[in-house]
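We emphasize that the prediction below concerns an isolated chain of 266 residues; any contacts that depend on oligomerization or on bound cofactors are therefore not represented. The input was used exactly as deposited, without trimming of termini.
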Amino acid sequence: MFPFRNILLPDDSVNAQAALKYATAFARHGHGQVVSFSVQDAKTELASKIAQAALDHDIDLITVAMRDRKLLTRAFGSSLAEDIIAESPCAVLAVRPPQRDFVDGQTEIQLRRVLLATNFRPSSAAATQLATQMANQLGAELHAVYVIGDYLEQISVMFPEGGLAALTRLRSYVEERMANLSRGGGATHITEGRPYQEIVKLADTIQADLIVIGTAVHGSLFGSSHVLGSEIERVIRNAPCPVLCVPAARVLTPLPALVTQIVPQT
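Result of the prediction step, given as a token string:
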């Protein structure tokens, strides 16, 4: 999975330079190449064409720059970058200038701290593997975070006879899994609250250079074939650093165990 060798750069002319810097640095590190894809077509067709181009050119990474959107646009549809992330068969680096930068000029990757957001489901297995590889090969600190959603606290208040027991078991399970994860090196964090808020806050606190998160998509009410989950979208749009979105691989281990065997997508 890492290093990345073939990097696809959708050239949208407005924010291409922000994404180009990362594409160039990763291609140089992996002794690979940057493939430019001209953004000319209608948005409804473009994301799937970029995904097909990624397959045709054996792309390992797509770099995209996020644009600010008006509130109404956010409510009734996703951005082009979010469509690319949702459709992509490979990892996508989402950059939203100005953010903390881990590329020196356009040549050197200086990754010091990587924050892995995990939920121990198959959707985060590939992200865990990629974050670990990047941290090991680039000499970066690896931090892993699991956020226990605040809705569980609400359930325990509404149904104290069962909700509190379930929450206690979940906390115990997460502590055990995080302890296993930490044996490979790095730091672990368990927080409770709104997932995207806790992830963004921790990234800012530890001065993370990169957030790595597994992406899971679902159908859209507004016609798009795939859209990102709202929490993932909010992480991307509020992160103080670039976010590496890793699509879920097909796996052989059932939920909710931590997956150790990954089957590449076809």
